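I am writing to request your help with a piece of structural work I have in hand. The matter concerns a single protein, recorded as an amino acid sequence and a row of backbone structure tokens. Could you please explain, in whatever detail you think fit, how the structure tokens follow from the sequence? Thank you for your consideration; the sequence and its tokens are set out here:
>
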Amino acid sequence: MAALSAWFWNERFWLPHNVTWADLAQQAPGVEYPKAGHLFAALPLALGIFAVRMLFERFVASACARSLHIHPDVARRAPPNTVLEKVFTSITKSPEPRHLDGLSKQLDWEVRKVQRWFRQRRNQDKPSVHAKFCESMWRLTFYLCIFTYGFQFLWQTPWMWDTRHCWYGYPYQVMTPGLYRYYVAELAFYWSLMFSQFTDIRRKDFLAMLVHHLATVGLISFSYANNMAAKLANYAKYQRLCDLLFIVFSVVFFITRLVIYPLWVLNSTMFESWVIVGPFPSWWLFNVLLLVLQVLHVIWSYLIARIAIKAVLRGKVCSDVRSDVESSSEDESPREENGANGHCAARSRPQNHGDCSHHA
């Protein structure tokens, strides 16, 4: 273990040239430098955040949802059928037309009835609007709190106004209590998302989100030693408010992810640090992870732009393009089509509850 630890914490990888761990251990009285061991506090805190989330969604968000007449839905379950269930679980969840014809003849059912069974079977395990509302409200609440704290803290720091201060004297930089709390809270939150990623509402960008969380945890850990409201309005059927919040969200997302992040953050980590500190092995790792986030920002910006274009063409914000929830069968009346169908309805059908986009 000692050999493995020595290999992992190799000074020539993690630290700039001519700096050793022993140098960082020589601290003046009252001065505290960041230590990797400090980050272990994030793990129990992550479990605590996860527990708080469960309580928040159950008692606070759920009560808010019910006050807006958003109640837990009883999913329409597909009628039991051994033949179709075997096809669904072992062959395909979306049979091609020729397979539908064969199943229709085998069961003596109409093709549309077989189609409806598979559609209901795919949708019966999908989360309800109530569940989506509660999850979105939790994330909105946490993001709002951590943003407020972070903004209040960073406003008083010199590197908020001149990013070159991030690199002056690196790595001999004092860890203040406020900065430590901010780091650990953010790290714990993303660890909690890692725990819940496999139980949360699963979307088509699951892998992208997993990569995002891994990269973020890595960046926060390394740098230590670095829309939700629109969803709620849409789930509550406040379409005009949803449209307005989506516009605000889109503008903020594009400016922060495609302008501020590359021109301010990446410029500092890639170019200012190169001039002031100089590159060293972990410098490359740090910037690769930051570039991974930028690639994800571009992908999500494309998805948001698609929703925006559809909103302009159809007159309202459409569903989240990452949603897996499907529409009801073609022969069902508009009155039967539920809002989580993943498609935009005509303006004359206000009961659509399609999911608004997110991502902060």
